Amino acid sequence: MQAEADAKEAALALIASLHVCSLATGADGRPHAASLMYAHEGFRLFWFSDPATEHSRHIDAAPSARAAVTIAADHQDFATIRGVQMVGVARRVTNPREMTAALALLTGRYGFLARARGGPERLAEALRKAAIYRFTPDRITLIDNTKGFGHKITFDPGG
Fold first, then answer.
1. What is the DSSP letter of 52?
2. pTM listed for this prediction
3. Which residues have C-beta within 8 Å of that of residue 62, sequence separation ≥ 6?
4. Distance between CA atoms of 20 and 146, rounded to whole angstroms?
5. DSSP state of 117
6. Are 10 and 142 in contact (CB under 8 A)?
7. How far, rounded to the nearest angstrom, does the alpha carbon of residue 116 sit from its chain's CA centroid?
8. Where are the domains of the chain?
9. What is the CA angle 93-99-103, rounded to 5?
10. Could you list the pLDDT tens digit for every one of the 159 residues in the chain?
11. Is-contact 43 89, C-beta < 8 A?
12. Nearest to 32 by CA among 14, 49, 44
């Protein structure tokens, strides 16, 4: 279906053009949201996070932690809102090969990360404590109010 193919292309373009996502996790019925800088490989997102943070603890507590992500720019007019909503699985990256690839994505997107190890001590220390996490969506919704209020297309990222 052409509409779904166009939605996938538009969603990937939004993910590539923006830099902060909102990650929603939860445990024991308590929701938690965090804003994170991310890198991506297709629809999969990667980020650094301190394992002691609430969202990291939620992810680390379950082998297949369910999570949701939103990515959208700030808008002052509802008619211009475009964004991506995703539901899927979040995990800490532990495979050395995947860690290397994710680190390359993150430092390639954010040059300051490559320089941080020798940079300000506070940032260098934070990165030494951080782990890399991955979000893999199984359902994606593209919201595009430029095509009408509440216009959305939901699709499977692989299908």
1. T
2. 0.90
3. none
4. 21
5. T
6. yes
7. 21
8. 2-155
9. 120
10. 788 899 999 999 999 999 999 999 998 888 999 999 999 999 999 999 999 999 999 999 988 899 999 999 998 998 999 999 999 999 999 999 999 999 899 989 988 776 665 555 555 565 667 899 999 999 999 999 989 898 999 999 985
11. no
12. 49
Residue type (1 letter), 89? V
In the chain, the amino acid numbered 134 is R
- Residue 13 C-alpha from the chain's centroid: 14
Q: What share of the chain is helix, strand, coil (3-state, %, to 5)?
A: 35, 40, 25
Name the token pair of 104: 């390359």
CA 141, CA 50: separation in Å to the nearest integer?
Answer: 28
Domain 2-155 CATH assignment equals 2.30.110.10: yes
- What is the sign of the dihedral through the CA atoms of 93, 82, 157 and 88? positive
Q: Which residues of 108-145 are buried (b: 16+ CB within 10 A; e: fewer)?
A: eebeebeebeeeeeeeeeeeeebbbbbbbbeebbbbbb
For residue 90, give the nearest of 30, 23, 142 by alpha carbon. 23
